[in-house]
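This part of the workshop introduces the protein records we will be handling. Backbone structure tokens are a discrete shorthand for how the chain folds in space. Once this layout is familiar, the rest of the handout is easier to follow. The record below serves as our worked example for the rest of this section.
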Amino acid sequence: MLDCAEFTAVVTEPEFDPLSNQLSIDEVFFEEYGFKSICRINATNIVADRYSFISKADGCVIVDSGHR
């Protein structure tokens, strides 16, 4: 079994995610699974960073059309 106490969880969240959602995520990751910490990031930031790393470009345009 994985000992989550040694790891940081990376959680993608939409911009302006309500505080109630963030607190619910905290409860699950910290209390139920026991992760050391949480890194909250927007999915478009991950895509932009990865694209810049692969292409060596200075920037890019990302269109996020998803909606919950």
Observations:
- The chain is about 40% helix and 15% strand.
- The first helix runs from residue 19 to 32.
- The chain has a mean pLDDT of 89.
